[in-house]
Give the backbone structure.
Amino acid sequence: MINIPKGTKDVLPDEAYKFQYVEAKARAAAAVFGFKEIRTPVFEHTEVFQRGIGDGTDIVNKEMYTFIDKGGRSITLKPEGTAGVARSFLENSLYAQAQPVKMYYISPIFRYERPQSGRLREHHQFGCELFGSPEAEADVEVISLARYFLNSLGIDKLLLKINSIGCKECRQRYNEALKAYLSARLAEMCGTCRERFEKNPLRILDCKEENCKKITAGAPSVIDYLCTDCAKHFDGVKSGLAAAGISFEIDPKIVRGLDYYNRTVFEFVSLDIGAQGTVCGGGRYDGLVGQLGGSGSPAVGFGLGLERLLLTLENGGLLTGVADAAPDYYIAPATPDAKPAAAAIVARLRAKGLSAETDLMSRSVKAQLKFADKKGARYVVVIGGDEIASGYAAVKDMRDGTSVKVKLSEI
């Protein structure tokens, strides 16, 4: 037997409805805020991610699924959604449209990393991207959409954490201060942090190793090194969130894991018992389009993993009222001779847009009724010789057990 590759998972028919439920909520939330769907390829030229995400990230260095195709081109399965959307924004001249351009995607994501609960080597993301506006109001718009979506799923106990990592000039000054602070204890830190010290010291703040977290606890705050424009922008984000009634906490340790971020970065953390953890993250990336060869376009967005989100919903008991689609009708032929009549009724019901099923296994009537109950059919109709002769059949409502006689032609 050939087994599924490590880090992947089959979404079976009995589970797929959960994804469909969350995806429908995502599409509905996006529509409320005026975001339209974009579908980019599952794979891109590797350069899209190398230039967009950054060579100093774990994703580019360790986690990408990259291969050479038959034409000798380096191709990579998308490890995140934003870079591909930015490439499409540039390639299809969406910058020439009325701004801002608001887009969302629901897409598979591929990363070669250690599989863990809620994070597989192939997982799925819902993401929203807003291009064209440098204003703090755009940051608030995206954050508001993320909160609206999570609230629509019943996740009410949320903590929004925000930070600003400034622009290149801000970060250059901050990186110098951070390196000065860390240099004395660099030998005590993990190998990854020692590598980041020269390439991208800001990322050290994102390390999950306990010892490294203790060392960086007293590190200087990037907010103290913001230039006048970046500080003004961050003040605009804070005042905009307050005006929208969205409470937040400033967390100077939030830097996000991708090099294209600048200024605002944020995370939503679930505070529900048994479901704590980051459920959504995002920020501003004004330089990404320029890194991909364009003239530059300000942008802000977020992404969240659907598998991790489903774990949060299940741990919080928020999927108990969500059910798989059940057939409206089950038409049970009592004898082989009744199968054509049952099939004709099923065909008429389906033509009306109703979900209807009949026996495909030559089961007994008793077994068919048991099967219909297991499938959750709303109505069950048994068709036998008497029903065919009289032209009437009993339609049983499986919710309360009541029956009504109806003409076969009018079921």
